[in-house]
Amino acid sequence: MNSNRSSSNITGARQTMQTWARVIESVADAPEGFQSALDVLEKRLDEFPYTVFAPCMEGPGSTRKQRVLCHAGETIFIYEETNGKVTETSLRYSDISLLEVGNILLYSWFSIRGKSTLGDEVAVTVEFNESTLRHFEPFFARMRPAGEEGADRAAQQAKLSFLSSENFKFMNFACQNLIPGERVLHAVYQPVRRETLVTFLGRAFYRNAFPAHLLLLTDRELILIGEAEHVTEKNRGKYGGTLHYIPLRMLESVEIEPISGDVKKVVVQMKYGLPIERPLDGSSAEAIRDFPAALAEARRQI
After folding, report:
1. Nearest Cα to 49, choosing from 60, 40, 62, 58?
2. Does residue 231 carry a pLDDT above 90?
3. Each residue of 194-206: pLDDT tens digit?
4. Residue 234 half-sphere exposure, CB side, CA atoms within 13 Å?
């Protein structure tokens, strides 16, 4: 009996380890299907670049594909295996208009949109086990580079303290993900909007019309923080979330459009991609009123 339990635990541990991303040190160290493509890249660069293998990761919305990422100078190369065929997508970091990072427990992913080195508009998603996040941070650091000089980090984080009583999880997301030197200019917090579904025997039953989210404007980027999809309403406040980072130089427009009653939506359009929309209601009216002016000033400074 104990032997069976031990065997089961070992199997489970091995299955988890198979989802761990790892740094690849050489062409020979890579999975066989990627070796030919990496050999070509190494010869093109005259050296083997920083390379990470991301195995298949099961999770909500998973594509169930394995990928290899390479950092070479000002370019990221992403290799994806589909039905035994490996394809390459490469982008200069300066041509990335959106970085999305999401997490639901151990299932994590990041997506980028931008212009490929071939001149095409592309969108690529990479899934990975959250415990191996550190291997991807060198890529994120190039997509969101820190400045040499800037504002005091603690002072900028203090500007978000109002969220401690509104949404502690979002406050942590925002504070932890400010890059060194980044200045917080404006924040718009939209709480969960609940609407009455039905009233029965004097008791009202509600539904969530839309989830909470945060618009965070800094002197370098617009950050959208929200709840992860594929999570039940009951657990949304506990597990996971998504962060969208849009460099201010990549913003084309930010419009606030009416929907009905006190409900509006903010529409964010960036280069190389579809717009992102977020709903707003009267609870965020004061903060959103000052947002366009703050954004216009931030864009003038870049």
Report:
1. 40
2. no
3. 776 767 676 766 6
4. 0
For 45-75, the pLDDT digits (tens) are 999 999 999 998 877 766 778 999 999 999 9
Total domain count, the chain: 2
CB crowding 160-174: b at 16 or more within 10 Å, else e: beebeeebebbbebb
The answer to whether residue 148 sits within a structural domain is: no
Q: Which domain holds residue 193?
A: 153-301
Q: Is residue 277 part of a domain?
A: yes
Mean pLDDT of 108-132: 96
Say yes or no: 123 and 187 in one domain.
no
In 130-286, where do the E strands start and end?
A: 184-190, 193-200, 203-210, 213-218, 221-226, 241-247, 251-260, 263-270, 276-280
Give the Cα-Cα-Cα angle 30, 72, 91 (nearest 5 degrees).
Answer: 100
CA distance 38 to 301: 41
- For the cut 50, the answer to whether the pLDDT of residue 1 exceeds it is no
Burial (CB count <10 Å: 0-12, 13-18, 19+), residue 291: buried
Cα separation, 146 vs 250, whole angstroms: 17
As a whole number of angstroms, the distance between CA 189 and CA 214 comes to: 5
Q: 275, 251, 272, 246: which is closest to 121 by C-alpha? A: 272
Query: Which phi-psi region, left, alpha or beta, contains residue 92 (left: φ > 0; alpha: ψ -120 to 50)?
Result: beta
What amino acid is encoded at 248 in this protein? L
Residue pointed to by tokens 């909007």: 193
